[in-house]
Amino acid sequence: xxxxxxxxxxxxxxxxxxxxxxxxxxxxxxxxxxxxxxxxxxxxxxxxxxxxxxxxxxxxxxxxxxxxxxxxx
Length: 73
Description:
The protein has a domain at 21-65. 66% of the residues lie in helices and 0% in strands. It has helices at 9-17, 24-53, 57-65.
């Protein structure tokens, strides 16, 4: 995804589709649908990365225990 400084193509399409006021319940439903859509995409991408990099629980445990902060005197 690329962040843009003006209205994105998604924003423009949503404006075209929903050029009227929705009930609050409908608005919440649409927000949840969009959130679910993007969450599913992120999950798919992370799963692909997990497989590509051959990550496993041991690697994740190692990351949890890493201390990468600069040591101060």
